[in-house]
Write a structure and sequence with these properties.
The chain has 325 residues and is of the alpha/beta class. It has helices at residues 11-27, 43-53, 62-69, 80-92, 107-120, 134-146, 166-169, 171-185, 274-277, 280-293, 305-316, and strands at 2-7, 32-38, 57-59, 73-76, 97-100, 124-127, 149-157, 189-198, 204-212, 217-223, 230-237, 240-245, 253-259, 262-269, 320-321. The protein is 38% helix and 29% strand. α5 (107-120) runs antiparallel to α11 (305-316).
């Protein structure tokens, strides 16, 4: 029996990660047991989380939970201010861990988690769910078959998002997905020039121009207050292009492959349930499978340091280069 523990019981735990694990249990009966849930303060919420998703007991100390429950894996879904401490503690205890993005409040904390990962060798995965969304997986499979590609465009459009750290806290999702796409189809990100432009609402829009390892180029636009919600990625090659959009609330997702002016393949996904169509279930399946099979989950903490560095540079509106020592 594969035993899973959980740290956190807040909104994100309840809306996507709890449902994803509950779905996994339904699809793998008699293979998985949901054990302890650890929180620092909100014990009543943790009890409700246990009852809702089938976990067995509430703890307030991670080490005690690990000692008594002996989990094979653990989810860490706390606020970003708690990720470094909680995820680091679980890795130090030698328990494979999946933890939410961003991996820390800043690049320094991301690097500290990467160092803990390297030193302990504990399997881990950072929860960048876009990588595991069905539309992304479909697009990457097409890209492997129909490359090469020379230009990548991505946009994240939002309404009424006035949080000052938008590029780092939310835009990092798009930026990490771009990094993953670039590594699969463009030879990775070589450098990026960023611009933080004040909008009419006294907040900022963010623009990123990228150079890739294969000589290709890319562009990302993050517009947090433009009045519409959309997240779309497009890969351009000679006489072919791939485009896909993430599902969002009531808007479904889709992916299309065009070759020589004709639509040759396409797929669609409903907006709901979000834990299935936005990648949370996919990342859970991959993480559990990797741990069971004794292989390395991906992306681990070391693999996403560049994504964090890029998001921090975009937030600050400065240039950044990669792979120069």
């Amino acid at each position: 029996m594969f035993r899973i523990a959980f740290v956190g019981a807040g909104e994100w735990a309840n809306t996507v990660h709890g449902p994803a694990l509950s779905q996994y249990v339904k699809e793998h009966p008699d293979e998985v047991e949901l054990t302890g849930v650890c929180v620092r303060k909100s014990v009543d919420k943790a009890r409700e989380f246990c009852e809702k998703f089938g976990f067995s007991k509430v703890y307030t100390d991670i080490a005690e939970m690990v000692e008594k429950e002996k989990p094979d894996a653990c989810w860490v879904v706390t606020g970003v201010e708690g990720t470094r401490i909680a995820a680091g503690a679980v890795m130090e205890l030698g328990v494979p861990v999946l933890f939410e993005k961003p991996p820390g409040r800043n690049l320094q904390e991301a690097r500290e988690l990467a160092e803990i990962s390297r030193r302990t060798g504990t399997p881990n995965m950072v929860g960048f769910n876009r990588r595991w969304a069905p539309c992304t997986r479909k697009a990457l499979s097409w890209a492997a078959e129909h490359g090469p590609f020379e230009y990548l465009y991505a946009r994240m459009l939002r309404a009424k998002r006035k949080d000052e750290d938008f590029a780092f806290g939310t835009g990092i999702h798009l930026l990490d997905c771009v990094v993953a796409i670039s590594e699969a189809a463009f030879g990775g990100v070589k450098s990026a020039r960023t611009a933080r432009v004040e909008s009419l609402g006294e907040r900022y829009n963010f623009h990123v121009d990228m150079a890739f390892g294969n000589g290709g180029r890319g562009r990302c636009d993050l517009l947090p207050t433009c009045g519409i919600v959309d997240e779309t990625y497009t890969l351009f090659g000679r006489d072919r292009w791939i485009t896909f959009s993430l599902p969002w609330h009531t808007v479904g997702g889709k992916a299309e492959l065009w070759v020589e002016g004709e639509l040759v393949d396409s797929d669609q996904w409903p907006a709901q349930p979000a834990f299935l169509t936005s990648g949370f279930y996919g990342e859970a399946v991959e993480f559990i499978s990797a741990v069971k099979e004794g292989r390395r989950p991906s992306p681990q903490a070391e693999e996403v340091v560049d994504s964090v560095a890029l998001a921090e540079a975009v937030q600050e509106g400065r240039e950044i280069a990669f792979g120069e020592g």
